[in-house]
From TrEMBL:
Name of protein: M55 family metallopeptidase
Top-level lineage group: Bacteria
Amino acid sequence: MKMYISVDMEGITGLPDASFVDWRKHNYERARKIMTDEANYVIQAAFDEGAEEVLVNDSHSKMNNLLIDEIHPDALLITGEVKPFSMMQGLNDSYSGVFFVGYHARAGQRGVMSHSMIHAIRNFYLNDHCIGEMGMNAYLAGYFGVPVLFVAGDDQAAAEAEKLIPHVTTAVVKETISRSSVKSLTPKKAGLLLKEKVKLALDNRKLVSPLIPPENPELTIEFNNSGQAEWANLMPGTLWIPGTTKVRFQAKDMKEAYQAMLVMTELAMQTTFS
């Protein structure tokens, strides 16, 4: 049994705002330690339940947040940015299941630090299905035939996961008060919950099916302003839908749709005014 873990940061226990998840801010170093400890609880639980290999992908911002000298010694870690498949780098059809740890709700929804990849994004659509980064990642896992078994984060991320992925196991480590305040478990208490929920997720893994994407998905990204749409539309093969901030791309498969999303979001970040 091989397990794949994508670790984001906004949904980690106790982190309420950007001062914890931005490397330039004063709480960031504290948050890295909490994030690493949280990943370790999940890794250890996976090994305890019979996993022979655990691959961890650092999936937040510059993607070099997890402390490799403190990560579980038997795990493998993917770290650093400019990865062809970003938050899902390294996943393939040899894995038994995917865990999302430290995840958050999508843009425009209630939830702690809710967003979709970058703050220029209002919505992703796969055909007509409105999703966030969790949905994009789950569909890419489904392309490889791998189910998302477990999602940990705030209460709104858990609710989004349960709506998106039937029978998924979730662990709520903090509750949303506002987009920048939470009622949180302590890290040690969260660790106990994570271990319990990972065991449940693996016990119930046969109940969860991969989230299979459309064969030839149409990706549409709705941006917050026209400048972002202009930049995204520079990617060959895209169509800017008149009268909207939506840019559309017809992909041959989910892998191409995912990489198109990465390119368009990177281009949109070139916009200097919001």
